[in-house]
Specification:
Layout (H helix, E strand, L loop, with lengths): L6 H33 L2 E12 L4 E10 L2 E6 L7 E6 L4 E4 L1 E6 L20 H4 L5 E7 L7 H7 L7 E7 L19 H11 L4 E7 L6 H13 L3 E4 L9 H8 L5 E2 L28 H9 L2 E2 L10 H9 L23 H10 L4 H6 L3 H6 L16 E14 L5 E15 L2 E5 L16
Parallel strand pairs: 1-4, 1-5, 6-7, 7-8, 8-9, 9-10, 10-11, 11-12
Antiparallel strand pairs: 1-2, 2-3, 5-13, 13-14, 14-15
Helix pairs in contact: 4-5
């Protein structure tokens, strides 16, 4: 019987099968790589800037990549061809979006009101992005009674992220007389409004402009305990003046906030006033102030139209006392006075000798921690892409305090570019825009 030799035929088909399998595998790998590249394509690449991100201990030249509304990657020399849009920020400083922890933005038409639904409250978007600010915290303009109006009328309509301290008084900051109404200080309603209705927006309680004893502060602290949020206090206008040592050591909890830290007012026997942290005779920081800060009391700048004096700030900084947070106390009377905007206040601290990284810390990660919003104030991969890009200008600049005295500085921060949730919302010199070209003729 004749046998047919099949070995060669079998090997031939095996080799062809292997080649086919390898080809299919290569195609599949190529498809997978292509899909991966497409899935990770960068929307915006901010390239060549010096990144300062205190939370993540970054202080060096890095590129920042954004996909959608999130930080995608931070690294040196990310290839420009991996991005749909590359913005050259060489020579500029890139930071997390700035947080202004003390402002008044309950803008409205009630001309008899100080800050609640009032012309005294400013439009957040008109002052935020042009100063690198992406988050504004309203400092007690609304109470629990009118916060729903504030939310509908302002917060829901603003591009800026607007958070708020709820006023201890239910009617909010209408007049200074309203701030004396102890019967309208309701800790249970305050806590209900914060914890049950608006826990992602309301970050604390505000006590302000109270003329009496510690009742307003204590009602605010009681509200804070019920809602598990900090209290911020504008402490003054007492006759006779109340003790700030007692405020810090007996009434405050660690994490509660003393604003207008560097305010100095002459104390009258008849009208009272606010006790300062720096002794007006010796120009020494009072020892209990250091102890209070060590205890966990937060000291906020809250510059405003009448609450920042070089007589307080400069001696304090020279003696090693630095505020925890830097803020504007932005409202209608402060916006064109010694305080212009957040970049002005930040630059003022540079002029007084504070380092740039310390200034950025006190306007990003520090306030985020104070208001218990650890999702803000940093550039961690996966976090929302709130970003400020600053030009640190060199020259001769003047900075004023509320007493209309001036110091000189050689540096000035200018917001070049601001991104909110991955979108360019401020571009001072058009660095994110394409160059103009004459359209081609259609004839």
């Amino acid at each position: 019987m004749m046998r047919i030799k099949t070995t060669g035929i079998s090997e031939f088909f095996q080799q062809q099968f292997i080649r086919l399998a390898q080809g299919i595998a290569a195609v599949l790998v190529l498809i997978l790589i292509t899909a991966t590249v497409q899935a990770q394509e960068i929307d915006i690449l901010l390239k060549g800037g010096h990144v300062i991100d205190p939370k993540n201990n970054i202080n060096s030249k890095m590129d920042v990549a954004i996909v959608g509304d999130k930080i995608f990657r931070i690294a040196a020399d990310i290839p420009a061809n991996t991005s749909k849009k590359t913005i050259d920020i060489s020579g500029l400083y890139l930071t997390p979006g700035i947080i202004d922890m003390h402002a008044h933005v309950f803008h409205g038409a009630d001309v008899n009101s100080i800050s609640a639904n009032s012309p005294g409250g400013l439009q957040a978007d008109a002052f935020s992005f042009r100063a690198g600010v992406t988050t504004v915290v309203d400092a007690g303009s609304a109470g629990w009674r009118n916060f729903p109006l504030f939310k509908t009328q302002v917060i829901d309509r603003s591009q800026t992220r607007v958070l708020a301290f709820l006023n201890v008084v239910g009617r909010g900051m209408v007049t200074r007389y309203d701030q004396q109404d102890v019967t309208d200080m309701n800790p249970e309603m305050n806590a209900y409004m914060i914890k049950k209705l608006h826990p992602t927006i309301l970050v604390g309680i505000k006590s302000a402009h109270y003329w009496g004893d510690f009742t307003s502060v204590d009602k605010a602290v009681e509200s804070g305990k019920l809602a598990n949020v900090p209290v911020i206090v504008d402490f003054g206008e007492h006759s006779p003046p109340n003790s700030i040592e007692s405020l810090f050591m007996e009434h405050f909890r660690p994490g509660d906030i003393f604003t207008h830290t560097f305010s100095e007012h002459a104390i009258s026997k008849t009208t009272g006033g606010r006790e300062s942290i720096v002794d007006v005779k010796t120009r020494k920081v009072k020892p209990f102030v250091f102890a209070a800060q060590k205890r966990g009391i937060i000291f906020d700048v809250g510059h405003g139209a009448g609450a920042f004096n070089f007589n307080q700030a400069i001696p304090a900084l020279k003696q090693g006392f630095m505020p925890n947070t830097i803020s504007t106390d932005l409202y209608n009377l402060s916006m064109n006075a010694a305080m212009k905007d957040m970049t002005n206040v930040m630059s003022k601290f540079l002029a007084m000798g504070m380092g740039l990284q310390d200034v950025i810390l006190r306007t990003t990660w520090n306030p985020a921690q104070v208001i218990k919003r650890p999702d803000l104030g940093h550039l961690t991969v996966g976090s929302e892409a709130d970003i400020a890009v600053f030009n640190l200008k060199k020259g001769n600049f003047g900075y004023m305090d509320v007493g209309r005295t001036k110091i000189s500085g050689t540096e000035k921060l200018e917001a070049e570019l601001t991104l909110r949730a991955g979108r360019v919302v401020w571009d001072l010199n058009g660095i994110s825009a394409a160059d103009w070209q004459m359209p081609a003729s259609t004839n």
